[in-house]
Design goal:
By secondary structure, the protein is an alpha+beta fold. It contains 6 helices and 14 strands. The two termini are about 30 Å apart. The structure holds thymidine-5'-phosphate (TMP). Thymidine-5'-phosphate (TMP) binds next to β9, α2, β12 and β14.
Length: about 230
């Protein structure tokens, strides 16, 4: 299969003219590749968790690129044109929000924050607003409005899902793509690499912050997330 793209943690292959095979690798990185390692089993965990998240969204009426989970570490997905904007949704202050603004980590936000970051390594993925996105021809105003709506709906669905599993959805990032008809589909991955997940009781970190901040065995934490989601399955 022709390789279309290889990123920091995933490789995308052309399956056929309108489908891609996404391979989740065991590579882990933080700080735009400044910190790197390989963690055995990470790819499989993230593929399985992502597949479940996409299935859940589909079930709740959110359109995604997801077609099928291929064990252990691949997803078959519709080919889309990814809009180079990371759509970040925050329920609780953490990460870059606390570095850039006077929010305290763990503080419940008065209102949900939806943030757009321009996916561009050369410029360090800067936060942008609608006017900048439109001027850079990244998306139309109508698409940006829909992207915000999709992000908020995804937040409602995932927040409730994780709450029932004893996990707080602190924040997450999604990517959105256009299919051949210009319809917006949630794409890429939704995994502990792209969500902040805290245990509801202990506030133990169960996501990539464990790697970013050297808080312990990152795979052990991802396994806790998988265990809560899938139980014995
Ligand atoms: P941040 O606090 O570092 O801006 O991250 C917000 C959320 O977005 C967090 O759940 C991690 C996720 N994220 C990614 O998945 N990829 C990225 O490149 C960045 C910056 C954040």
């Amino acid at each position: 299969m022709k390789e279309l793209y290889s990123g920091k943690a995933k490789t995308i292959y052309e399956y056929d003219k309108d489908k891609v095979l996404i391979e989740f690798r065991d590579d882990i990185s933080a700080g735009n590749g400044a910190k790197k390692d390989v963690k055995e089993g990470k790819g499989a965990l993230n593929a399985k968790i992502s597949a479940k998240m996409f299935e859940l969204l589909e079930k709740e009426g959110v359109k995604t690129h997801f077609i099928e989970y291929i064990e252990p570490n691949k997803i078959l997905a519709k080919k889309v044109e990814i809009i180079p904007i990371e759509v970040i949704v925050r329920n609780i202050a953490a990460g870059s929000l606390c570095k850039r603004y006077p929010f305290k980590e763990g503080e419940e936000l008065k209102e949900v924050i939806v943030q757009f970051d321009y996916k561009n390594d050369e410029y360090g993925d800067p936060m942008i607003n609608e006017d900048i996105a439109v001027n850079l021809n990244l998306a139309t105003r109508e698409e940006l409005k829909k992207m915000r709506e999709i992000a908020l709906k995804v937040n409602d669905i995932l927040k409730k899902f994780f709450d029932e599993k004893g996990i707080i959805l602190v924040d997450f990032k999604i990517e959105i793509g256009r299919d051949e008809n210009g319809e917006l589909l949630v794409a890429d991955e939704i995994s502990p690499d792209t969500m902040r997940l805290w245990d509801k009781e202990t506030r133990e970190r169960l996501d990539k912050d464990v790697f970013r901040r050297d808080l312990g065995d990152v795979i052990a934490k991802y396994k806790i997330v998988a265990e809560r989601i899938f139980g014995g399955n």
